[in-house]
Write a structure and sequence with these properties.
2 domains; binds 5'-O-[(R)-(carboxyoxy)(hydroxy)phosphoryl]adenosine; 343 residues; Nucleotidyltransferase, domain 5; five-stranded mixed β-sheet; binds zinc ion; alpha/beta
Length: 343
């Protein structure tokens, strides 16, 4: 069965056609990165207006690339949360219009679940449950125990910044490009990860995370080189700041905590595999360290499926639909939508 997936939760306008939740026939992503770069982050109102401009051409291209017609589709899956309300509204309304006009089932998809299902868009997807899913993106950092398709228990989550958000904010502090994750990873390659001993928030006895103290610790280090440095965009870095060493030491601190919490949960819940998901799963230090620390197989999606895309939405939509889950015409956007039960 072919599902049309639509994703507009943040700053990528994306549409994809995926067969049986596994095989990507097309995956078109129109990124707004160049528009938001000047603000040093995503500007919500600009993002939703950009979605309005791009959504129809992106869907047309997805059908054309997949060489399918409307009649070849078995459903329309769309992200309805979590995300930016104005951005989500664009995708949900377009999906409703298409599903209604073509008589197709409409499936509202949780964006976090979609990130997890990016791990099914490969030749050999996970077969046995339970799985442990570390979702690390610009908006979320959570550990989920996945007992079956659609069955999630959130073991822990961030109490403040998401991991990707911390990468983006620290990159801004260091005068690096947006989005910050790839920029920090590039810079860290020339730096010494031991140069600075940044704090790790272990939050013992829980699977929760906290990254805001780490961000402040980086700020304090930079402030030693000059006054008036803040998190505001466009602030000039004083001379002499060891950018590469700070980037490497910061990245090491974030990865250490993500790996250790995941390692402990993998043992405690005796999972069959660990799945990484979300934009930060593209980070190679995280992948390497996780692989050597965790005793079970660790998998992650290819880089283009780690960041926001509609193929993962179509995949999640398919697995929901075959379980009989579909949405009504009153499907609403839920900007703070949660996934599964919480500890
Ligand atoms: O999953 P995503 O595309 O959007 C959300 O749902 O939030 O994740 C985007 C986030 C950004 O914060 C970006 O800096 C981060 O993922 N990211 C990375 C890397 N590539 C993207 N963080 C660390 N290392 C990377 N290579
Ligand atoms: Zn995302």
């Amino acid at each position: 069965m072919r599902i049309l997936g639509i994703e507009t939760s943040c700053d990528e306008t994306s549409a994809a056609v995926v067969e049986d939740g596994r095989h990507i026939l097309s995956n078109v992503v129109a990124s707004q990165i160049n528009i938001h770069r000047r603000y040093g982050g995503v500007f919500p109102e600009v993002a939703s207006r950009q979605h309005i401009l791009s959504i129809i051409p992106v869907i047309e291209k997805a059908l054309e690339d997949a060489q399918v017609d409307w009649g070849d589709l078995g459903g329309v899956a769309v992200t309805h949360g979590p995300g930016l309300a104005g951005s989500l509204l664009v995708g949900v309304n377009v999906a409703k219009a298409i599903a209604w006009a073509k008589g197709l089932p409409l499936i509202g998809v949780n964006h976090i679940e979609a990130h997890i299902y990016a791990n099914w868009l490969v030749a050999e997807p996970p077969k046995e449950f339970p799985l442990l899913c570390l979702v690390v993106s610009g908006g979320h950092t959570s550990l989920f125990l996945m007992r079956d398709h659609g069955d999630y228990e959130e073991l822990g989550h961030t109490l403040d910044d998401a991991a990707g958000e911390a990468f983006d904010k620290v990159a801004r502090l260091l005068g690096l490009d947006f989005p910050g994750g790839p920029a920090i990873e590039r810079e860290a390659k020339h730096g010494n990860p031991e140069a600075f001993k940044f704090p790790r928030a272990w939050l013992k006895g829980t699977y929760n995370f906290s990254f805001s103290g780490l961000k402040t610790a980086v700020l304090r280090e930079i402030q030693r080189y000059g006054d008036g440095i803040s998190l505001k965009p466009g602030v000039k870095l004083p001379p002499g700041v060891p950018v590469a060493d700070l980037a490497a030491s910061f990245q090491e601190a974030v990865v250490d905590v993500l790996v250790e919490k995941t390692r402990q949960a993998a043992i405690n819940y005796q999972v069959k595999e660990v799945l990484l998901a979300g934009g930060v799963a593209a980070n190679s230090l995280l992948r390497e360290k996780m692989k050597s620390a965790v005793l079970v197989p660790v998998r992650w999606p290819p880089p283009e499926l780690c960041t926001d895309n509609a193929a993962m939405v179509a995949a999640a939509g398919y697995f929901n639909l075959i379980k009989g889950l579909r949405s009504g015409w009153d499907l609403d956007v839920v900007p703070n939508l949660k996934l599964g039960t919480r500890r």
